[in-house]
Amino acid sequence: MKISVIIPVYNAGKYLTGCLSSIAAQTYPDFECWCVNNGSTDDSLRIINGFVQKDSRFKLIDRTNAGKQAAARNAALARATGGAVTFVDADDYIHPRMLELLVKAMNETQCDVVGCLPFNTTALYTGDFETVKSYKTKIYKDPVAAFMTKRCVPTTVWGRLYKKSVITSPFIEDIFFEDVPFTFEIFSGLKRYALITARLYGYYKGNESTMRSVWTNEKTDSYIRVIRSVPLFAAKNVPEKANAVKKHISNGRVKMIMSRIKNAPDRRELYNYAAPKIRELYREKLISYSGLKLKHKIALCRLLYGGRNLENGKFTCVSQTVYPLKIDDLLALPDVVPPPPAIKGKEIVILVGNRDKNIPDRLYQGRGALENLKSAEGETAPCHVAFFRNRPFWDLLSPFCRAYRNRFHAFGTAVYHIRPQTVREMNLERGQRTKENAYLYSKWPLSAQQRQKQYDDLKNSLIQNGFDDNHPVEIMLCRSLGVKDTVYQGHHRIMFCIDMNVPYIGIVFMYVSHCPRFLAKPLYRLAKIFKKRTAE
Question: pTM of the entire structure?
Answer without folding.
Answer: 0.57
